């Protein structure tokens, strides 16, 4: 469960203030028919993907803060496409809380989520906003939540092309909905894959959870996609199958650190060792606290 308190938010805000301007965080992949927006550190380096048709678009994930969601909306508007569908891959607030901003900009869009994910969002989104909003200055987050509708099929159609919405898999949380676009040889992995960032491991402290994440990676690798869009990355990170190897290597690192560390301090030091240049360092403190709860 994602928890943000005032102390954590101050550190995130400071990281965001030091980040580059929004203009540097758009990645265009003309050959795949997608635009990818990557948030700043204050937005937790989340990827949102805009799948482009000739006249319409499908958006995957809605960002965390109002500022990042508004920048995503600007990117979408600049494509000149009509937003038909906004799909939310999982219940974590950094993928859902910006949905209100997108719906204000694109009121004709239909927000959807897989039935299992939609149920989790319906239960948790408002309490999360209440908790997170109370820890942040006014205006950082949207003032309301939007609960997506249940996606009634296993795919989304965009101008006749089929976007496969896969059954939820285990990644940094138990239910994450990847997407496969066969015509574009593209997988939107969401938080089953990360690139050049620390992993959100708070919900993966047990061997069986880590093993389930590894199986999800194998499932997506089996699709043999040429373009793989991770859930979190730095703006200049790759979007190809190498993100699976990166994620698997970090899971190796996590398991080794868990086995060898005897305290919160040792675990944090082990996670940082060799990973000093990775983004989303906020995730380390949450992972450590999940194993060694503060007294």
UniProtKB/TrEMBL annotation:
| Keyword match Signal | yes
Q: Which UniProt keywords apply?
A: Signal
Q: Which domain of life is it from?
A: Bacteria
Report the SMART domains cross-referenced here: Lactamase_B
Give the matching PROSITE patterns.
TAT
Q: What is this protein called?
A: Glyoxylase-like metal-dependent hydrolase (Beta-lactamase superfamily II)
**Transcription regulation in keyword set:** no
Which positions make up the signal peptide?
A: 1-29
Which positions fall inside the Metallo-beta-lactamase domain? 45-232
